[in-house]
Write a sequence for this structure.
């Protein structure tokens, strides 16, 4: 059976490693998939480009999306996710170091489910990743066709 | 602009069940963050509150909305649709908090851009746990939009 996965869109290798560690040390049975720029994220979700052979029925249960990304910016990825029938219901959590208030407003206005600033301390970062997983995958109800 | 960290977080609770209102307020009273919960008990009042109609003229915009689905006068789904199509209101994170576990309700809520969908457990202890998880996630992990 297919297990719900989480898609992490992150170009910073340090943050990627931290997220993987945080997931590894929590008890979530969800695989974490990582893509490294905005174009790769869109290709993954829409099963285009390098992901044209991916099963389009296997949608992630959650997307953790950085804002400052190479090739296609995070807010643009969010916009694309929210306009495609197949992806519009997938929860998107913005996970960014941006402190710009306009990024917060734009993200919520474009349909981000929540906006989270990356904590600087390692322990706080790990806790935050765990809390995101707990909240979205344990307490929150998702449509069954997601993941 | 006043930052949320310098004032009480404003929550609008749209709920017609008086028991649930009382329990929800009890949980938020234990929060580390100063908060103020305003309650309206039907969908029409919710829209009047948010659009600052009539007696709500001098109201401040809430930082977070907790919205039940089955409401008198105007259904929660209609309220959600109005919030998420209003350019000034759509940025406000809106948490659906309902007893309904119906797949069609979950799908409809996400299609209307609900920020998340939480079902209310009937068991009192579980109910408190769920409300606490909402309080912790949205108050301590998430960055809410400032006004």
């Amino acid at each position: 059976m297919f297990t719900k996965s989480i898609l992490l869109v992150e170009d910073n290798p340090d943050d990627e490693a931290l997220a993987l560690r945080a997931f590894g040390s929590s008890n979530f049975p969800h695989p974490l998939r990582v893509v490294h720029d905005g174009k790769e994220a869109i290709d993954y979700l829409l099963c285009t480009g390098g992901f044209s052979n991916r099963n389009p029925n296997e949608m992630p249960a959650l997307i953790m999306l950085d804002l400052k990304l190479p090739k296609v910016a995070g807010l643009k990825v969010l916009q694309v996710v929210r306009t495609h029938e197949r992806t519009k219901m997938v929860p998107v959590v913005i996970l960014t170091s941006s402190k710009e208030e306009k990024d917060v407003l734009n993200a919520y206005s474009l349909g981000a489910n929540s906006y989270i600033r990356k904590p600087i301390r390692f322990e706080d970062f790990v806790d935050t990743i765990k809390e995101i997983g707990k909240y979205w995958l344990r307490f929150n109800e998702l449509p069954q066709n997601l993941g | 602009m006043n930052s949320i960290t310098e004032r009480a977080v404003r929550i609008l609770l749209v709920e017609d069940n008086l028991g649930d209102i009382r329990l929800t307020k009890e949980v938020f009273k234990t929060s580390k963050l100063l908060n103020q919960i305003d309650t309206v008990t039907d969908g029409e009042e919710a829209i009047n509150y948010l659009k600052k109609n009539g007696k709500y003229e001098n109201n401040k915009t809430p930082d977070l909305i907790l919205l039940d689905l089955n409401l008198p006068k105007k259904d929660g789904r209609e309220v959600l649709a109005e919030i998420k199509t209003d350019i000034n209101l759509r940025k406000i994170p809106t948490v659906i908090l309902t007893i309904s576990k119906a797949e069609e309700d979950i799908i409809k809520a996400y299609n209307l851009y609900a920020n998340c969908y939480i079902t209310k457990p009937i068991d009192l202890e579980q109910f408190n746990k769920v409300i606490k998880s909402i309080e912790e996630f949205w108050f301590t992990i998430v960055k809410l939009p400032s006004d």
